[in-house]
Amino acid sequence: MTALTVNNQPIRYALDPETPLLWALRDASNLTGTKYGCGTGDCGACTVDIDGRAVRSCQVTIGQVEGSFVTTIEALSRDRSHPVQQAWVAEGVVQCGFCQPGMIMAVAVLLKNNPRPSDADIDAAITNICRCGTYNRVRRAIHHAAA
Ligand code: FES
């Protein structure tokens, strides 16, 4: 058993500790907002918040993050849209949308740690890949959320 707290719920996974967190979230917890894009740590579609850090969940095993607090896109906001999600809507960021949960999680962590990021800060922190090329709108939405 591997114990984690996921979206404020204690969870014990009866899975091999070598299971990537991404697959525990998607297959065992049915938290399918966290996406599988590449599986190699490059795209960021699988980004979740682990203890306040943006982490690519395909790259960590549940054993490595045992005892951690994990937040997925499903729990980013309890009652209404998170300010980042509101900015995403206001700026019309989404095209196909597949990468956006991971993108939004990465941005939410960035803004928690750096409420007024510069363009250079954004470029350094947000390395998620969007095949639709929404990068300009993502940047506008980050500044919108930070305003
Ligand atoms: Fe994890 Fe692409 S699926 S980085």
Automatic annotation (TrEMBL):
Transmembrane segments: none annotated. The keyword Isomerase does not apply. GO terms for molecular function: 2 iron, 2 sulfur cluster binding; metal ion binding; oxidoreductase activity. Keywords: 2Fe-2S, Iron, Iron-sulfur, Metal-binding, Oxidoreductase. Residues 1-76 form the 2Fe-2S ferredoxin-type domain. This is (2Fe-2S)-binding protein. It comes from Sphingomonas paeninsulae. The lineage of its organism: Bacteria, Pseudomonadati, Pseudomonadota, Alphaproteobacteria, Sphingomonadales. The chain holds residues 1 to 147 of 181 of the full protein.
